[in-house]
Design brief:
By secondary structure, the protein is of the alpha/beta class. It contains nine helices and ten strands. Helix content is 29%, strand content 18%. The longest helix is centred in the middle third of the chain and has 22 residues.
Length: 329
């Protein structure tokens, strides 16, 4: 049953050029008759799942699946797609973000993945900043974030020019790693940023990355609270989407597509009680329009510190450190 604590796992995660998937938590496919009505609770007790991030002996960390009623793990593919995560405050977006990072940790350490972390809230991602400073880049101020995003566009287009006519799909290597552009609270940059010029530059950079990045190994993962079109005008450029607890029924279809709530994705009914509702979500994939009920694994502060320690401890002496702090051009 969901809610059962499980032992640590030393399973390793690999990357496949066609479809890299990482375990995040538990999943359960629900038909409309099983999850669309308020008479049946879609929530179960919290499942604080740990992994091998702090395990001795160099065990490669990977989020251990939570125990769902269907018993199957929740896998998220990032390579070759883009992911939008929407949910109200306290819904558990951080659980999804940190589970993704935790699952990619062995690949970060091997130089096959880099994460460019945009943290306008200066809280969630800053706690594990050493990971990004070591294996990618970190930016917090709007000016620094736009510099990082526009730099990513430049690098992506340069890579495309290098690979043009040589290959059609991206295979992660040390020379051409898989790059994840992670943007927390993206609405602050696309809708609530008072500087119109910066707003438009952010939207242009994200639109370019989402329309041109998939084939050359760039993925955008964006999280936000308000899924309205005027807040996130490019949401349709994200093939895969996760709806966590939402405030209104109408927001479900905004995130997951027309008819998603009628097919059972009652994200607006997820409990506001963290013990039962945090991390619960519905996911809709490009390859499968039917929403699936899932729950993200819990990643504690201790886990994040352990991940940061592993990244910095295994850094090769000649590995370049990057952190975006300067002014945008």
């Amino acid at each position: 049953m969901l809610g059962e604590s499980r032992s640590r796992s030393d399973a390793t995660g690999g990357i496949d050029a066609a479809a890299a998937s990482w375990t995040l938590g538990s999943r359960e496919r629900r038909s409309p008759q099983h999850c669309s009505g308020p008479e049946e609770s879609i929530d179960q007790p919290a499942c604080p799942v740990r992994d091998g991030a702090g395990a001795p002996g160099g065990a490669s960390p990977r989020p251990e699946p939570g125990a769902g009623s269907a018993g199957s793990p929740w896998l998220v593919r990032l390579h070759g797609t883009h992911l939008l995560v929407a949910g109200a405050t306290g819904a558990g977006k951080g659980s999804v973000i940190w589970s993704l990072i935790r699952a990619m940790l062995p690949l970060l350490r091997d130089g096959l993945v880099r994460i460019l972390a945009a943290d306008p809230k200066v809280m969630e991602l800053a706690y594990g900043r050493a990971i990004f400073d070591t294996c990618g880049a970190y930016a917090a101020s709007p000016v620094a974030i736009i510099a990082m995003l526009e730099g990513a566009v430049t690098d992506m287009q340069a890579r495309a020019a290098q690979l043009a006519g040589k290959q059609r799909d991206h295979t992660p290597t040390a020379e051409f790693p898989f790059v994840v552009v992670l943007v927390d609270e993206v609405a602050f940059l696309t809708a609530y940023q008072p500087d119109r010029n910066l707003r438009e530059r952010v939207k242009a950079a994200l639109a370019t990355l989402t329309t041109q990045g998939r084939a050359v190994g760039y993925c955008v993962v964006a999280a936000l609270q308000d899924p309205r079109k005027e807040v996130m005008s490019i949401r349709n450029l994200f093939p895969d989407r996760i709806a966590m607890r939402l405030d209104e029924p109408e927001q479900v279809d905004m995130v997951l597509g027309d008819g998603a709530r009628d097919r059972g994705a009652t994200a607006d009914l997820i409990s506001t009680d963290p013990a039962t509702g945090a991390g619960v979500a519905f996911i809709r994939l490009e390859a499968d329009p039917d929403p699936v009920r899932v729950r993200a694994a819990w990643v504690s502060d201790e886990d994040i510190r352990a991940m940061a320690s592993q990244c910095t401890a295994t850094l090769a002496p000649d590995r370049e450190l990057r952190a975006v702090e300067g002014e945008a051009a």
